[in-house]
Structure formats: structure tokens, C-alpha cells
Design goal:
The chain has about 375 residues and is of the alpha/beta class. Helix content is about 40%, strand content about 15%. It contains 14 helices and 15 strands. The strands form 5 sheets. The protein has a 7-stranded parallel β-sheet with strand order 3-2-1-4-5-7-12, with helices on both faces. A two-stranded parallel ribbon has the order 6-15. Keywords: NAD.
Length: about 375
């Protein structure tokens, strides 16, 4: 499979260590690597269900992917796997907002302390590291602190988030929702320092709400009954069950949403263009797909009615407080709009898929995958 980088140089096959590669992002990246490249992939994770189709003997690329069931918290085997690879992509994280309040210690350990050995091993062995951070690193926007009647409230420059300019504005310590963003900021700073002082070749990725098939889980089907996934899976679960979609604090927070397939194109460009990606922090999102969470819910109702054949008038929303939904200590950012200048200049990447199109693909998958299981669950008598 002959491939060239953005500068016309031939891309040599490499060995990629993918930590957390059995999850949502990792499964799509594995599919991309198996389908379009000659690279070998070593997946480290505690679960493999989302990549099992790639591990089957009948899969044409099965000889280029291997899975190691390893928990990096307590298994030293992953050091050898990192040091034997050409590049490590670290996706491992606790990244569901419902956990930030209820499991702040686990959140900090997962996103900061557990990542330290990964950074250390890459530095010691002189190997590249692509580390996944988060758009939550930016916290609240400057614009959100302006008085409601201030004329600059409408100026977009106070809301646009730039990798090398925007400050990180978090809420008070008692708002434990920010434990995730703080942990991610600390590991970013460690990676940057290792690059400056010890020559670590790194790229930091800040995803802005990547969504698509296989994201998170559906409670009671392939996840815990009391689990609370991120917004797409939460709303999908409500739709599948015919329940109202719950709008936290009225769903007024604004978000941009990026299709996972578009985002994976950007990640592959980072992997195969080290001269353009090393030392860079990249926003990866779709600023054209900005909506409030309430508007997202309304659009999901419309699209789900189309793919499922259900009557849209039977699908509704309801408002809940953040305290009731997430617990004490919840806080949130107002808007998350990525500036795309750096990734466009360095890698020539721009997202392509509209919000309605990506929801059409995603909700068709959700309905096809889960509707029968949900019906079976709902038909069982309550204990």
C-alpha cells in the first residue's frame, strides 16, 4: 500500500502502540489503519469488544493487529510494548462528566498519574507520543464573564478557543467537575516540559465533542444499569426507550460536534506527518456544527423519528437540574468553539460532515444495534 505524506515523501510502515485502543476513538482509528495503511497496531486495553471484528482470523488484516488485555494502572508489560513501537497514541482516560463529580480521585489518577509512565517510557526510548487531551482544557470562555448587557458579549473573539492564546479558566475547587480538565492540563504541561527539556517528540490532540457509532454505551444493554454516558449516548438511550430527553439546566450550554470519521482523518495525518505534527497542540472539531444541547436534542428527535419510523410527536424533552442529574459539584463551560488555524496550516485538515448527516448515520446505527435489546428489556416484568 504505497502512501506519501503531505510533503511527497514515502511513508514507511510503522508499529503503533494504541493505549485505550479498544474504545470509541480507538476502534475507528484501528479500522482506518487496517483499511488504508500497512502499519501494524498493538492495542492495549481492558476491553476488545469494539475491535473484535478486526481480530477475527477471517479479517484480511488480522496479521497486522494484536490485542493485549492490560490495565496500565497495575501491569508493567505495557512498558515493553511502548518501547518496541515506533509511536504511541494514548487514548486511555475517564472522560464521562457523570464521573467527574462522583469519582474525582479516579478521574485525576486516570488522566494525570496513570499517564505519567507513558510519557516517561516514550521519553526514555526516544519514541513519538500522540496524547489525547480534551477541549475541556479551556474551561470557561472569557465572554462568559462579561455582564449580560455588555456589547462585547456578541463579539466572537471572546469565545473562540485558540491553542496558543486562550487561557484555561476553571471553576472553584469545590466544583469537582473540573478535576478532569485540571488533570488533563497537568499532563499536557508535563508532556510539553519533557519536549522542551528532554527532546520528547509529541503531539497533543484536543477533541471537540467527537461523536458517531460505538460511542460510549447504552445503560442496561452494554453498560451498567445506573451508568450515565455522554450526551449522545444519553439522548440515544432516551430515544430508544421512548423516554423524554433530559436537558440539564435547560440545555443552554453550546457545543460543536465533529463526526468521528472526519476526526480520524486528522489523527492519521498526525501519525504520518511527524515533521508537521511534532511539538504541536491541535484543536480537532467542527465549528460549523454549533448548537445548544437543547437544539441537539430536538434535532436528534427529528432524525431518530426518520430512521426508526417512530412518531416524532411521541418523543419529547424535559428539564432537570445539574444537581439532580450529576450531583453536587457540577459546573460547566458555556461555549466550546475551536479555532482551526493551526491544524489547517500544518495538516490541511478541515471537517466535512454536517451535524444532521452525522446524526443520521449515528442514530441509524444506534437503532439497528440496540432497538431489539431495549424492547426485550422493556418487556420483562419489573422486579
Amino acid at each position: 500500500m504505497g502512501r506519501s505524506d503531505l510533503d511527497g515523501n514515502q511513508i514507511k510502515p510503522m508499529k503503533i502502540c494504541l493505549i485505550g485502543g479498544g474504545g470509541f476513538i480507538g476502534s475507528h482509528l484501528c479500522e482506518k489503519l487496517m483499511a488504508e495503511t500497512s502499519h501494524k497496531v498493538v492495542v492495549i486495553d481492558v476491553f476488545s469488544d469494539k475491535i473484535d471484528h478486526l481480530l477475527q482470523k477471517s479479517c484480511p488484516s488480522v496479521d497486522r493487529i494484536e490485542f493485549h488485555k492490560i490495565n496500565i494502572k497495575n501491569d508493567s508489560r505495557f512498558e515493553t510494548l511502548i518501547k518496541s513501537a515506533d509511536i504511541t497514541v494514548n487514548l486511555a482516560a475517564i472522560c464521562t462528566p457523570a464521573d467527574y463529580n462522583t469519582r474525582p480521585l479516579d478521574t485525576i489518577y486516570s488522566n494525570f498519574l496513570d499517564a505519567i509512565p507513558v510519557v516517561k517510557y516514550c521519553t526514555e526510548s526516544g519514541k513519538r507520543l500522540i496524547h489525547f487531551s480534551t477541549c475541556e482544557i479551556y474551561g470557561k470562555t472569557i465572554g462568559s464573564f462579561l455582564p449580560n448587557d455588555h456589547p462585547l458579549r456578541k463579539d466572537p473573539k471572546f469565545y473562540l478557543l485558540k491553542e496558543d492564546v486562550s487561557p484555561c479558566i476553571f471553576g472553584p475547587v469545590e466544583k469537582q467537575r473540573w478535576s478532569y480538565a485540571c488533570a488533563k492540563q497537568m499532563i499536557e504541561r508535563l508532556i510539553f516540559a519533557e519536549g522542551a527539556e528532554h527532546g520528547l517528540k509529541f503531539t497533543i490532540v484536543r477533541p471537540f465533542n467527537w461523536i458517531g457509532p460505538r460511542m460510549d454505551f447504552i445503560p442496561g444493554v452494554d453498560g451498567p444499569n445506573d451508568g450515565v454516558p455522554r450526551v449522545l449516548a444519553c439522548f440515544s438511550n432516551n430515544l430508544l426507550r421512548g423516554e423524554p430527553l433530559k436537558l440539564v439546566d435547560g440545555g443552554q450550554s453550546q457545543r460543536t460536534f465533529c463526526y468521528i470519521k472526519d476526526a480520524i482523518e486528522a489523527v492519521l495525518l498526525m501519525i504520518e506527518n511527524p515533521s508537521r505534527a511534532n511539538g504541536q497542540i491541535f484543536n480537532v472539531g467542527n465549528p460549523n456544527n454549533e448548537v445548544t444541547v437543547k437544539e441537539l436534542a430536538e434535532l436528534m428527535i427529528k432524525v431518530y423519528a426518520k430512521v426508526s419510523g417512530d412518531d416524532a410527536s411521541n418523543l419529547t424533552t424535559m428539564e432537570v437540574s445539574s444537581k439532580d442529574f450529576y450531583g453536587v459539584g457540577y459546573d460547566d463551560s458555556d461555549k466550546r468553539i475551536p479555532d482551526m488555524t493551526i491544524i489547517t496550516q500544518q495538516l490541511g485538515w478541515n471537517p466535512k460532515t454536517s451535524l444532521e448527516d452525522l446524526l443520521d448515520t449515528t442514530l441509524e446505527y444506534q437503532h439497528r444495534t440496540y432497538s431489539q435489546a431495549i424492547k426485550k428489556t422493556l418487556s420483562q416484568p419489573a422486579c
